[in-house]
Amino acid sequence: xxxxxxxxxxxxxxxxxxxxxxxxxxxxxxxxxxxxxxxxxxxxxxxxxxxxxxxxxxxxxxxxxxxxxxxxxxxxxxxxxxxxxxxxxxxxxxxxxxxxxxxxxxxxxxxxxxxxxxxxxxxxxxxxxxxxxxxxxxxxxxxxxxxxxxxxxxxxxxxxxxxxxxxxxxxx
Length: 172
Fold this sequence. Notes:
Layout: E1 14-19, H1 26-38, E2 41-47, H2 58-69, E3 75-81, H3 85-92, E4 96-100, H4 104-120, E5 125-129, H5 140-148, H6 159-165
């Protein structure tokens, strides 16, 4: 009996790649691009993140993700989500959640989340993807900090995101 992840399944294989994406980095893009090669559709689910103080408003994060998704292979959608990711997966008919992991610390946290998500919705698999080696050191937190201190983040984010990170010119 084929699983929902099986290429022979009649249902399109939809995966959800969720995060705050504050901002979307080249590492995030790499993971989404790799996921697009494995699934019929990838939904980049941008968390509303009421519990976090984000640098960018939800609409800005959605716009940056949509701009990046427009340059990726395969069928991609960008949607906001709130609440439990497993509920969102059920609503979207997803068979998998994609998680990018950069290191053992990420893996420990994500493995725990995957086990809990399996309890909440056993029909949804968690798929871990590693970004390219040269992107594994990038995190949204570090990108925000480097940018705020005037550093160059052009090797960490795409040009569209980089332009959004630049501080507005001072008004005279």
